[in-house]
User: Fold this.
Amino acid sequence: MNIRRLIPAPAVAGAVVLGLTALTACSASDAADRKNGDRLDVVASFYPMQFLAERIGGDHVSVTTLTKPGVEPHDLELSPREVGRLSSADFILYLKGLQPAVDDAIKLSESKHTLDAATLTSLEDHGAEVGGEEHGHEHHGDEAGADPHVWLDPVKYAEVARGVGKSLEKTDPEHAADYRRNTDALVTRLGALDTAFEQGLAGTATKTFITTHSAFGYLAERYGLTQEGIAGIDPEAEPSPARIGELHTIAREKKVTTVFFETLASDKTAKTVARDTGLRTDVLDPLEGITGKSRGTDYIEVMESNLAALKKALGPA
Assistant:
């Protein structure tokens, strides 16, 4: 995860005031439009939350995301209007601890209908794979060191989906039956994805993979794998000579074949490590956004591509 540029709280507070002022004149008409359109106005913080809102909300929601395609979620900066928009939304779905700018904006906007996906499943501390030191991601949630990448574990993502469905039912009880049906369908699909991962990764030559972005702690834990991060919190950081040596040893001893990089960051570091260790490179997508470079058009397809990449890299037993 990249070293994040944080927006000072006073700046966010100022943006909230400016945004609320800018929206005062049009908020009434916006609300009328939503009622006329009979769709819940949902704001999602980034893609994994957007996917849940769209799949579960179906035709009853109009979903917008704060993080545009191609933007690294952790580096997100919000305009005054985007911040102010939070106060006019019917429902806000976010993941606390992942995007500090979003966390601060939601807190200061005092939005009434917000759901923190981090409260819908248990968070764990991952990221101590680099040289025996604590090089985990820089998070800013209530639980220091907690890894927010729960969506990369289909089982945990299904837990979040159930919580989102229940919250939408309470927010819009008129369409509760549809939300419940859509939630059940998505949870079933995620269950099938979990089965595919469990079976696909059961008999591999190695259980260790190397990645520039240590986002796959939950996935590794779920399916009995070991994630080896290259250089800690920044997927584009140059690893130290000592770490290169460690990775070379790990690759040799654990039969590692591949260094993974992500779609929203440079592959420079991965190529450097691969060259120095004699390994190949490939994409393991942390699914923080969908772009034209993504190996799939949605969460399910990209996760299936991740499974294929892992099976190829880990090899048959």
Remarks:
- The two ends are 31 Å apart (CA to CA).
- Residues 1-36, 128-144 have pLDDT under 50 and may be disordered.
- The domain at 1-119 is CATH 3.40.50.1980 (Rossmann fold).
- The chain has two domains: 1-119, 203-314.
